[in-house]
Amino acid sequence: MIQFFRKIRQNLLSKGKTGRYFKYAIGEIVLVVIGILIALQINTWNEGRKARAYEVKAVKGLIADTKADSIFYQSRVQLFSNQMESYRSLFEFCNSSNPIPQDSIQFNGSQVPFTLAANYSDVIHNHNEVMEVISSDSIKQILRDYYKSFEFVSKAIELSNADVREYGNVFHSRYMKMNHLKATRELVFYEGLCELDNYEAMLTHLMNRNQNAQHQSIRFLNDNTKLRSKLSAYLKDL
Q1: Nearest one of 162, 175, 170 to 206, comparing CA atoms
Q2: pLDDT by residue (tens digit) across 107-141?
């Protein structure tokens, strides 16, 4: 193609048609510029298509991770509820004047007092660069709110775990008869706790910490529902 145009130019020059030569040269330049612009437009379109496909993939990943977060923090809410119930049972046990049968109450799984709570978010840990991928300012803002909400629930769980370690260590160090490998724990297994001078304050503090952690978990779940709803609607528009 280049040789074809070159022959035309040479033919015009050899015939002394300088004016037509310059017009032709200008036309050729215009064609080259148009070709470049078209190529740039195609390249821009391809890049935009790739960016959109990457954003769609990121949003789908976020939606999947919000579902995982929802399941995880629903279990946290239940855990804190079980822990508060176990501390109430211990409180009543220590303040009761009536003897309680050995098999009256058994703690199973997350009901066992002094249980540490794990804290994790798939949205937070799997999408460090998501802000660079998402093009919607409103989605970016709700993600920022979600990150902030995670900081609150993380802090609440950290405080709860700190007290569980502190008071649990005090109790276990004084009453080594606790069998840590046993699958269940009877209520009477904790009777030694009632001998601590500050057991009422300790149990009340643990319940308050659990209540705060549960409240923050519920708040986080509400933010989770809002984020998932916004992401689902946004995905339909992509």
Answers
A1: 162
A2: 887 888 999 999 999 999 988 788 889 999 999 99
Task: Identify which of 120, 142, 141 has the alpha carbon closest to the alpha carbon of residue 228.
Answer: 142
**In degrees to the nearest 10, what's the CA dihedral of 123, 126, 132, 135?**
-40
Cβ atoms of 224 and 67 within 8 Å: the answer is no
Residues 138-186 pLDDT 10s: 999 999 999 999 999 999 999 999 999 999 888 887 775 555 555 557 8
The pLDDT tens digits for 192-224 are 888 888 899 999 999 999 999 999 999 999 999
Q: Where are the domains of the chain?
A: 2-237
**Radius of gyration for the chain, computed over Cα atoms and rounded to the nearest angstrom:** 34
**The residue type at 128:** N
Cα distances (angstroms) measured from residue 22 to each of 1, 5, 7, 221: 19, 13, 14, 72
Residue-wise burial string across 213-237, b where 16 or more C-beta atoms lie within 10 A, e elsewhere = bbebbbebbebbeebbebbeebeee
Give the whole-angstrom CA distance, residue 61 versus residue 7: 57
- 47 is written with which tokens? 């890049």
Classified as helix, coil or strand, 186 is strand
pTM of the model as a whole? 0.78
163: buried, middle or exposed (CB in 10 Å: 19+, 13-18, 0-12)? Answer: middle
Average pLDDT score over residue span 84-100: 85
Give 185's strand partners: 107
The rounded distance, in Å, linking the Cα atoms of 173 and 194 is: 15
Residue found by looking up tokens 């916004």 in the block: 230
- Residues 193 and 91: their CA atoms lie apart, in Å, by 10
